[in-house]
Specification:
Length: 439
């Protein structure tokens, strides 16, 4: 199939032929099930033993990540009282993704993806244990938390492309979307449960206990992942040439595949605009609502419940209007951010977390599954490494927003992001007919 050499700067404004074939060598074909939602197939991919073990391991890491997000952000703000330093520590986890994700994608296309995932899980557990010890010995500072965030970001740069690209090796092609949606549902469930519990533990037992629990979850994840069959997960026999050349080949592949390029740009851009609110939520809790850490846990959990419902809906729909649903999710996130910024009432914000969570689930789940289906297997690790750059791009939204919040307030800063997200989504919706019509 001939491919056009479209550049990044034209991907958002150039439409592609809606009749273009979607079958490529090694790529998943569209599900044969009838379109529309069916709750009977919602959990179908969990019937595969290896994916079930992989999914259980993800639960441990995702629970730990969500607990850490609350504990670290609140601890930094409690130590420093500075929104800028809070943004800097949040950025510390993400910045290494810009420098190492592409290498992580090349590794995922070369080596045993299961082993790469285990190394990332081990680093997560050990870092949490180290932070807990620093807290217990009363030596923790925001610098320690920043260093831990940076090291964790490097490890995740290699783990996350492997984690996403291994899914098609664990389930049949027709169940990739379902598996991706259940992965998103796991994250949403942990967003619902973990922050609330972390807030309670933090409030009554202190931050050290939270970090000890996080470390335990990381070690449990390693145990589950070790039980996954090695058959079909390693990459022996793959190209062993220059890693840099592998990265270049992956970028050329992305540039030549217009719909993959559009989906990647959409994912990266919406992350920069939508995610900073989650990182800067302590500003709203402390400065706008004048409440404590337990209130932050309830807010994040409300978002998690909505995200869980949205992810389970995606798991049930098969291939039905996914492109349009992706765009609707982006619109919902933008509107929710504007409402949260405009109404300085805590319980109103809890309610607005519902459309924010639904939008987040739609964007994350559908974007990843569509990218995965469109990409050839030999390039999936590198394609997903570019998608995972959204974590590295997060500082481009978090840090400037935190600095602006120090001068004009959190409400104005987050409201501006919501308006920008709505404007960007309108441009994509108007210009990308192929995306709108994707099944």
């Amino acid at each position: 199939m001939a491919r056009q050499d479209n550049h990044v700067d034209s991907a958002i404004t150039t439409d592609t032929n809606s009749e273009q074939t979607q079958e490529r060598t090694g790529k998943a074909k569209s599900p044969t099930t009838k379109p529309g939602a069916s709750w009977r197939r919602t959990f179908s991919s969990l019937r595969h033993r290896d994916f079930l073990l992989f999914w259980l391991g993800m639960l441990g890491i995702m629970a730990g990540m969500q607990m850490q997000m609350l504990a670290r952000s609140y601890l930094v703000y409690d130590i420093t009282g500075s929104a800028s330093l809070l943004g800097l520590v949040a950025a510390g986890n993400a910045l290494p993704m810009l420098g190492f994700s592409l290498f992580g994608g090349a590794f995922a296309d070369r080596f045993d993806r299961r082993r790469i995932i285990q190394v990332g899980q081990a680093s997560f557990a050990l870092l949490a244990l180290a932070v807990a010890i620093f807290i217990v010995t009363d030596r923790v500072t925001w610098v320690h938390l920043l260093i831990a965030a940076v090291v964790q970001g490097v490890a995740f740069s290699f783990m996350m492309p492997a984690r996403q690209s291994i899914i098609p090796q664990l389930v049949p092609p027709e169940q990739i979307t379902n598996a991706m949606a259940l992965s998103s549902a796991a994250m949403s469930a942990m967003t619902l449960l973990a922050p609330f519990n972390a807030g309670i533990i933090y409030g009554y037992a202190g931050p050290a206990t939270v970090y000890f629990v996080i470390a335990g979850m990381g070690f449990a994840a390693i145990a589950f992942t070790s039980l996954i069959s090695a058959a079909g997960t390693n990459r022996k026999g793959r190209n062993r040439g220059s890693v840099v050349k592998d990265i270049g080949a992956g970028l050329s592949y992305i540039r030549s595949n217009n719909i993959v390029l559009v989906l990647l740009i959409l994912g990266l851009s919406t992350t920069v605009l939508a995610q900073p609110f989650r990182m800067l939520m302590p500003l709203f809790i402390v400065d706008v609502y004048e409440l404590g850490v337990e209130s932050m846990g309830l807010m994040v959990s409300a978002m998690g419940l909505a995200s869980l419902v949205g992810a389970l809906f995606v798991a049930s729909i098969s291939n039905w209007r996914r492109g349009m649903l992706l765009l609707i999710g982006s619109f919902m996130s933008g509107i929710a951010l504007v409402l949260i910024a405009s109404v300085p009432i805590y319980y109103a914000a809890v309610f607005f977390m519902i459309p924010l969570g639904l939008g987040d689930a739609g964007r994350r789940t559908l974007n990843q599954s569509l990218v995965m289906e469109e990409a050839d297997d030999e390039y999936r690790g590198r394609v997903m490494s570019v998608f995972m750059l959204n974590r590295g791009m997060m500082p481009l939204g978090v840090l400037p927003t935190a600095i602006v919040a120090d001068y004009v307030g959190a409400q104005v800063a987050i409201g501006a992001l919501g308006v920008l997200l709505l404007g960007f989504t309108i441009v994509v919706t108007v210009t990308q007919k192929r995306l709108r019509e994707m099944p």
